[in-house]
Design goal:
Radius of gyration: 19 Å
Order of helices and strands: EHEHEHEEHEEEEEEHHEHHHHHH
Distance between the termini: 38 Å
CATH class of the largest domain: Alpha Beta
Helix content: 40-55%
Number of strands: 12
Shape: globular
Largest sheet: 10 strands, mixed
CATH topology of the largest domain: Spore Coat Polysaccharide Biosynthesis Protein SpsA, Chain A
Number of domains: 2
Strand content: 15-25%
CATH superfamily of the largest domain: Spore Coat Polysaccharide Biosynthesis Protein SpsA, Chain A
Structural class: alpha/beta
């Protein structure tokens, strides 16, 4: 067995000059000895590519001529990646020095893991210091199809110190077995580029589950994340309302669209019908909220209808490859 299999770090970034030095310095300081790094610039209009080129010339830089969004960027990077394992990294993440070492060790010890979730804490970039508040310990899903970041916003007091299987990894710093990603391809894409913005991480994690790969949480793999640049998934109604105030309207639209497209692609019919009362009750409350406070989001219904036939076609492929029994799938929903 190779004690240090090659790990490829894919950093997809657009206009990340505020973060890129911190992110790449943490990569440069990793204790793991066998790395390749690809920085994929998604047509930035700031100094991001210049910083990468001048200050981190040891890393490969790809300057894309247009913004193909995060999922599209990762798809292109993965095709170029030689590593047995791949870290799909967002620019507002700082990895602890043993992140790669501990992640690779976990993957080497359990060949059934397709995606690994770190214990991700919140980084205070304003004051340039890490905090002990949890950003995420991975996603969990409820019978209503509500999805949340485990532990988000709570103080880290050791409540997530148990390595365990989870529903899905979260996309800020997903660590993957390349073999699993290749098996997860649908129509040549690992990350679904029809999703454009948001939820492509949950979609991939759900699909990996269906294909028999585990999403796994390891608390020894540690990173810090500035959650202010991305949507946080709420823990309650008050948190839900507060969290949506600062989210761009277009992003809220894609949030609504993609969570439902994800269900069309991946949900098991019998399980969904069983859970339908939970789903429709939550959906009704969301619609009341949208009608009162967020009508622009409802225009996403038309995009959902437009994209649903494509998702249904992808669903046929996914279900033809499904491995877990329905009783196993039932355990994913709280």
């Amino acid at each position: 067995m190779n004690n240090h299999p090659l790990v490829t770090i894919n950093l997809v970034v657009r206009n990340g000059e505020k973060y890129i030095r911190h992110c790449l310095k943490a990569i440069k300081n990793q204790s793991y000895p066998n790395l390749e790094v690809i920085v994929f610039d998604n047509n930035s209009s700031d100094k991001t590519p210049l910083i990468a080129k001048q200050e981190f010339s040891q890393f490969q830089l790809i300057e894309n001529s247009k913004n193909c969004y995060v999922g599209g960027g990762f798809n292109r990077c993965i095709e170029l990646s030689r590593g047995e394992y791949i870290l799909a990294l967002c620019v507002d993440v700082i990895c602890e020095k043993d992140f790669i070492k501990n992640a690779a060790r976990r993957m080497e010890n359990d060949k059934t893991i397709g995606a690994l979730q770190s214990k991700t804490l919140i980084y205070d970039f304003k004051n340039q210091k890490p905090t002990d508040n949890i950003d995420t310990a991975g996603f969990e899903i409820f019978r209503s199809r509500r999805i949340i970041n485990r532990g988000h916003g709570a103080k880290d007091i050791g409540q997530f110190e148990k390595p365990e299987e989870i529903f899905s990894y979260e996309g800020a710093a997903g660590f993957f077995r390349k073999e699993a990603l290749q098996e997860a391809k649908i129509n040549g894409q690992i990350f679904d580029e029809d999703f454009v913005w948001y939820a492509d991480d949950i979609d991939l994690g759900w699909r990996l589950n269906l294909f028999g790969w585990k999403n796994f949480y390891d608390p020894s793999v540690i990173a810090w994340h500035d959650r202010s640049t991305t949507q946080r998934l709420s823990r309650g109604y008050r948190d839900f309302i507060q969290s949506r105030k600062n989210i761009p309207p277009e992003k809220k639209r894609w949030d609504y669209i993609n969570q439902r497209l994800m269900m069309v692609k991946n949900d098991i019919t019998a399980q969904f019908l069983c859970d339908f009362p939970f789903f429709i009750f939550r959906e009704a409350k969301l619609w009341i909220y949208f009608l009162l406070f967020e009508r622009s989001t409802l225009s996403g219904v038309f995009d959902f209808i437009k994209l649903s036939p494509k998702m249904a076609a992808k669903r046929k492929i996914i279900m033809s490859k499904k491995k877990p029994e329905d009783k196993e799938i039932k355990n994913w929903f709280k």
